[in-house]
């Protein structure tokens, strides 16, 4: 999410209250846990790093990428580097082209990429960039994306 500092923690807490999985704002050097959704802290980039078979989150205060910080490209590219083709990348909504390069990296390494269809998307810029780049394995309406993720997870194993 492209969100300012101080907002992402509240968003994570709210989503955690209504979600079946744990949702939290990512912390620097935190070990990645199965079944947890991490939200990049506002105004910071989030990357994953593997060391000694442990995957950890790295929160960095770099320059904006694609005029945004956090950048989906930064996060998605690092996820692809860590997990290779065992990834499902999803772009739901957003302005601009952020995320397209990261989704390409996921796609090129054998992962699956889902983009939200224009008719159910609030802001179609980011999903459109993924589709235009030719890396969306599937374009689905918002209400079908969870099912599509589950289908791809079965395929990936």
TrEMBL record:
It comes from the Archaea. It is an enzyme of class 3 (hydrolase). Its EC number is 3.1.1.61. It catalyses: [protein]-L-glutamate 5-O-methyl ester + H2O = L-glutamyl-[protein] + methanol + H(+). One of its GO terms (biological process) is chemotaxis. Keywords: Hydrolase. This is protein-glutamate methylesterase. The keyword Transmembrane does not apply. PANTHER family: PROTEIN-GLUTAMATE METHYLESTERASE/PROTEIN-GLUTAMINE GLUTAMINASE (PTHR42872), PROTEIN-GLUTAMATE METHYLESTERASE_PROTEIN-GLUTAMINE GLUTAMINASE (PTHR42872:SF6). SUPFAM superfamilies: Methylesterase CheB, C-terminal domain. GO terms for molecular function: phosphorelay response regulator activity; protein-glutamate methylesterase activity. The keyword Hydrolase applies. Pfam families: CheB_methylest. GO terms for cellular component: cytoplasm. Residues 1-156 form the CheB-type methylesterase domain.
């Amino acid at each position: 999410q492209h969100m300012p500092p101080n907002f992402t923690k509240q968003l994570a807490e709210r989503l955690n209250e209504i979600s079946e999985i744990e949702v939290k704002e990512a912390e620097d050097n935190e070990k990645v846990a199965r079944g947890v959704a991490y939200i990049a802290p506002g105004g910071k980039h989030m990357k994953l790093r593997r060391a000694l078979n442990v995957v950890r989150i790295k929160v960095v205060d770099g320059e904006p990428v694609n005029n945004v910080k956090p950048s989906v490209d930064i996060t998605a590219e690092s996820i692809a580097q860590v997990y290779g083709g065992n990834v499902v990348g999803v772009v739901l909504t957003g302005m601009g082209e952020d995320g397209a390069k990261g989704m390409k990296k996921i796609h090129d390494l054998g992962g699956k990429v889902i983009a939200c269809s224009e008719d159910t998307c609030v802001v179609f810029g980011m999903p459109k960039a993924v589709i235009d780049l030719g890396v969306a394995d599937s374009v689905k309406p918002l209400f079908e994306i969870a099912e599509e993720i589950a289908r791809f997870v079965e395929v990936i194993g």
